[in-house]
Amino acid sequence: MNKPVQPMSSLSLKLPKADRSIETYRLAASRTFPAKLEGPLNRIAFSAVHTVADPFVDNDPWLSVAVDWDKTIAFREHVWDLGLGVAEAMDTAQRGMGLDWPTSLELITRSVAAAKRRNALVFSGAGTDHLAVEDAKSLDDVIRAYEEQISAVEKVGGRIILMASRALAKLGRNADDYAKVYDRVLSQVREPVIIHWLGDMFDPALTGYWGTRDLDQAMNTAVAIINGNAAKVDGVKVSLLDKQREIDMRRRLDKRIKMYTGDDFNYAELIAGDEQGFSHALLGIFDAIAPAASYALSRLAAGDEAGFHDVLGPTVPLSRHIFKAPTRFYKTGVVFMAYLNGHQDHFTMVGGQESTRSMLHLAELFRLADKAGLLANPELATRRMKTVLATHGIES
After folding, report:
1. For residues 237 and 126, what is the distance between their CA atoms, to the nearest angstrom?
2. Radius of gyration of the chain (CA)
3. Residues 6 or more apart whose Cβ sits within 8 Å of residue 376
4. pLDDT mean over 261-278
5. Can the peptide bond before residue 326 be classed as cis, meaning omega within 30 degrees of 0?
6. So what's the pLDDT on residue 7?
7. Confidence at 190, pLDDT banded by 50, 70, 90
8. Matching Pfam families, A to Z (predicted)?
9. CA separation for the pair 137, 392 (Å, rounded)
10. Closest to 343 (Cα-Cα) out of 75, 35, 32, 53
11. pLDDT tens digits, one per residue of 16-50
């Protein structure tokens, strides 16, 4: 079991509060987690991982992408060391919010090559985002866009996460339209894929996915299409932030198909499961809490469910804060955690997205990360938090 280290009573900083006051915040006793996986896992766990921007490129961040490839791949190595898989070029990597398809393909190519060197697990997002929604005139346009990206990912040796399509959300009117697209696309994939159902809280352009705003009807359509293509589907990632809907869907899936929780509000209990089953994991929050997630999963595999909840339970308030509405801006919190924990030397994001959360939000993130024992080096994290606060006129 991870053990507390010396209390951080000597570490404090001034943090803003919602009532416009400033408090002197003293860090709690920290926790340490292993830097590498301890023991086998009995759940498959992917971390959807972020992209590290390069702040030294003279570009226009809202219009063009600059990636620090060394730091970006190094973070994936960190995740693999912990026994987690990498879900590459997904929304956590800012796909559709700053990361375009050409850069995504380069990211996938580099990540797949790095994974092959160490026989690590990586699945990569294939969608239709190179097709502008306004240029999508027919379902055949959507199918061709999917085919192009799937072919490109498979060509570099990658496995597929079939991402939800903004163009299909625009054009798909009913279950038959979705069945036409998914049946055609899935019939061509080389290896079973993970289907990603991303809720509109993550991407408002996906409102009405599966041809309806009624989630019960949408569930019926999704289950019918997925079960009808069971031989081509490894699993389903559901990101609806609705625990019961995920459980209901999990129980309706063909027994060959895995459920990968994408519920960043309720992941601990969904992974633990119940007498009727459990969810595997494909989570953006695992980027920010990878060491704790790895250790917790190793405790679960060892039969220590209490230890699993002892480690993972305290991370849930942080995750709920990072993923609070507007949920699509959660990437800012994920990257801020990477900055606090020394995985990158700056708090700069692709697309200038570091500006999407307030200073109050970041201050509360720091408090919650500290309470969960997720600051790997409290002294470094405190210095970096003070630096960010100083840019907002708060001196510690």
Report:
1. 14
2. 21
3. 291, 341, 342
4. 97
5. yes
6. 47
7. very high
8. DUF993 (PF06187)
9. 46
10. 75
11. 999 999 999 999 977 999 999 988 999 999 999 99
Report the pLDDT value the prediction gives residue 10, as an integer from 0 to 100: 79
List CB contacts of 301: < 8 A, sequence separation 6 or more. Answer: 39, 40, 41, 42, 43
- Residues in Cβ contact with 57 at an 8 Å cutoff, skipping those fewer than 6 apart: 66
**Do the Cβ atoms of 160 and 124 come closer than 8 Å?**
yes
Does residue 4 register a pLDDT over 70?
no
What's the CA dihedral at 146, 223, 283, 316 to 10 degrees? Answer: 150
Please write the tens of the pLDDT for every residue from 209-260: 999 999 999 999 999 999 999 999 999 999 999 999 999 999 999 999 999 9
- Indicate the length of the chain as a whole number: 396
Dihedrals φ, ψ of 294, to 5°?
-60, -45
Tokens of 241: 């932030």
Residue pointed to by tokens 């809720």? 199
Task: Please indicate, yes or no, whether the overall pTM of this predicted structure exceeds 0.90.
Answer: yes
Cα 138 to chain center, whole Å? 30
Question: Residue 25: how many CA atoms within 13 Å on its side-chain side?
Answer: 23
Residue with tokens 């063909």: 254
* C-alpha neighbours within 13 Å on the C-beta side of residue 316: 17
Q: Tokens in use for 144?
A: 């061709």
CB 219 within 8 A of CB 249: yes
Nearest by Cα to 270 from 227, 313, 303? 313
Q: Residue 183: name the closest of 232, 249, 126, 133 by CA.
A: 232
Distance between CA atoms of residues 69 and 27, nearest Å: 33
Q: Which two tokens stand for residue 219?
A: 């569930």
Give DSSP secondary structure letters for 42-107: SS-EEEE----B-TTS-S-TTTS--B-HHHHHHHHHHHHHTT-EEEESSGGGTBTTTB-HHHHHHH
Return all residues near 152 (Cβ < 8 A) that are at least 6 apart.
105, 126
